[in-house]
Amino acid sequence: MTYIPILISLVLASASLHAKAQITAAVSCASKYEIPVQAKSGGHSYASYSTDGYNGILMIDLENFNSVSLDNKTGIAAVGGGVRLGNLAQGIWDQGRRALGHGTCPGVGIGGHFTHGGYGYSSRAFGLALEQIIGLDVVLANGSFVKIDNETLGDAYYALRGAADSFGVVTTFYLQTSTAPEVIKFSYSFLQGLESIENATAVFMGVQNFSLYSPVVDRNLGLGVTLGGNATSYTVHGTWFGSSSVEPTDWITSLAMLGGEGNLTVPLHGFLQQDNFYAKSVSTNVSFAEEPIRKFFEYAYSAGRGLNAPISWFSIINLYGGPDSQIGAEGKNGSWAAYSGFDDLWGCRICHERSYNAYLNYIDPELDRDEAWHLYYGKPLFERLKSLKRDLDPGYVFWNPQSIPVWNDTWVL
Ligand SMILES: Cc1cc2nc3c(=O)[nH]c(=O)nc-3n(C[C@H](O)[C@H](O)[C@H](O)COP(=O)(O)OP(=O)(O)OC[C@H]3O[C@@H](n4cnc5c(N)ncnc54)[C@H](O)[C@@H]3O)c2cc1C
Ligand SMILES: *[C@@H]1O[C@H](CO)[C@@H](O)[C@H](O)[C@H]1NC(C)=O
Ligand SMILES: *[C@@H]1O[C@H](CO)[C@@H](O)[C@H](O)[C@H]1NC(C)=O
Ligand SMILES: *[C@@H]1O[C@H](CO)[C@@H](O)[C@H](O)[C@H]1NC(C)=O
Ligand SMILES: *[C@@H]1O[C@H](CO)[C@@H](O)[C@H](O)[C@H]1NC(C)=O
Ligand SMILES: *[C@@H]1O[C@H](CO)[C@@H](O)[C@H](O)[C@H]1NC(C)=O
Ligand SMILES: *[C@@H]1O[C@H](CO)[C@@H](O)[C@H](O)[C@H]1NC(C)=O
Ligand SMILES: *[C@@H]1O[C@H](CO)[C@@H](O)[C@H](O)[C@H]1NC(C)=O
Ligand SMILES: *[C@@H]1O[C@H](CO)[C@@H](O)[C@H](O)[C@H]1NC(C)=O
Ligand SMILES: *[C@@H]1O[C@H](CO)[C@@H](O)[C@H](O)[C@H]1NC(C)=O
Ligand SMILES: *[C@@H]1O[C@H](CO)[C@@H](O)[C@H](O)[C@H]1NC(C)=O
């Protein structure tokens, strides 16, 4: 392995066949000279795996793969691998008043977000972003450019939906869109919840009870609790699909409001807005008992973590499952996609080892490789991914510090 102490960045011309041939050539060349490759879509990886997170990789920048094209008869959208979520949402709305379930931030890229889960308030109705993929155009490690789906190269299709960073460069996504619903956006700040740990705990237990047992909860509800501004605000946020005596807003306006910028459209070129932060995630398939929630608030409100926090922080708790949630509705077992998040709902595969796992899109660079693999994927899925890596990319063409290994090795750059 030759160590090359620079980041090599390749921005491709356009989504034409010519540009696809350029990706094929770049991947083949990198493979020949043993230079690991990572695609860059929105560049929003928490660990900067697509950008400057690691020296010596070849970054393939998909910025110019920016087309959004809706077939308004089938509702299938063909979307370039570098499209940002805001431009995706605006594009399918403009072309046919269609919607997809995905996260809220307009600048996030389709490439990372859709292939590693993808959660937003609409996910309980539409499923995770990943569940709306029906086909992919991809350049594989051997340089071949192929269209894959559940019937063609099914193993690659499986692996790319959950572990794309380890298996290829997606140039086009084929996505099943839905009719855009009417949306009621709500938020409520629990000022009394800030007054004491008892109140904070009681509010949380009440929200959890509502989401698990209230007869009005179905897939139309998206819900999250945010402890913001170093625990100086405590808010329940969400959306409800439907109209009522409250005036609903249309889908696209609700997305612009959730995105926080008042505008979903993101510049197609040179959009490099950046924040520095560190994040951790935990997902679980069990409801919380009062005691751990109390402990969480004791920690959050203890000296030096409120207004006097040494650094700025926030925490978000999102409802994933609950009555009628469509997340995981398609693939209740591990043969559907390389994604273990579904098992949080249907019986987490790693629960005999741990009672929680971690979210792939909130990548945590502090985890060591073994811990990351087991928290992200769980053992059976990880074993299957290693075997697929041996078939599809035995030479580590696609690599980042936590990517799928070929064996139980700790191959590092
Ligand atoms: C401000 C902000 C808000 C966010 N909000 C949400 C949210 O609401 N919900 C949520 O679920 N997540 C959210 N996230 C997390 C986000 O989903 C992930 O960081 C996601 O992986 C970013 O995708 P990207 O394409 O922008 O990132 P990139 O950094 O471009 O890519 C991330 C990883 O995916 C690989 N990759 C990218 N494109 C491709 C491709 N075309 N083919 C193969 N591999 C590819 C990269 O090589 C890299 O390893 C947010 C992140 C940020 C920074
Ligand atoms: C679907 O596309 C056709 C052709 O572009 C257009 O005439 C029609 O208005 C579109 N339908 C919707 C619902 O946008
Ligand atoms: C590349 O790998 C894919 C998937 O295994 C396979 O279908 C294809 O034939 C391979 N192409 C070449 C040129 O080896
Ligand atoms: C593949 O997906 C299509 C479209 O969703 C579906 O009709 C078909 O039954 C699926 N095939 C398999 C083998 O799962
Ligand atoms: C807690 O909430 C109740 C209302 O539910 C309120 O009366 C009380 O003042 C709050 N504060 C404390 C410190 O308990
Ligand atoms: C939640 O519901 C359970 C069972 O229905 C009940 O015992 C408990 O008191 C409720 N807690 C709150 C905070 O509403
Ligand atoms: C949180 O604390 C940090 C560090 O003390 C500070 O810079 C930041 O402004 C605080 N945030 C809020 C919303 O109070
Ligand atoms: C939204 O942003 C785009 C460019 O990113 C700009 O062209 C457009 O005018 C903006 N629209 C509004 C309403 O601000
Ligand atoms: C797992 O899911 C796949 C795809 O949905 C399905 O074909 C298969 O029958 C399922 N297996 C089991 C054991 O349920
Ligand atoms: C959570 O996962 C465990 C372990 O697989 C399983 O036994 C349990 O039934 C699951 N609970 C729920 C509510 O799905
Ligand atoms: C890899 O490690 C796992 C435990 O993490 C073990 O079960 C498996 O047998 C190992 N495989 C090889 C090929 O060493």
From TrEMBL:
Annotated InterPro entries: BBE (IPR012951), FAD-bd_PCMH (IPR016166), FAD-bd_PCMH-like_sf (IPR036318), FAD-bd_PCMH_sub2 (IPR016169), FAD-linked_Oxidoreductase (IPR050416), Oxid_FAD_bind_N (IPR006094)
The protein, known as: Glucooligosaccharide oxidase
UniProt similarity note: Belongs to the oxygen-dependent FAD-linked oxidoreductase family.
Signal sequence extent: 1-21
Keyword list, A-Z: FAD, Flavoprotein, Oxidoreductase, Signal
Residue stretches making up the FAD-binding PCMH-type domain: 7-180
Gene3D superfamilies according to UniProt: 3.30.465.10, 3.40.462.20
Species: Podospora comata
Keyword Signal appears in the UniProt entry: yes
Xref: PANTHER family: BINDING OXIDOREDUCTASE, PUTATIVE (AFU_ORTHOLOGUE AFUA_1G17690)-RELATED (PTHR42973), FAD-BINDING PCMH-TYPE DOMAIN-CONTAINING PROTEIN (PTHR42973:SF15)
Keyword Flavoprotein: yes
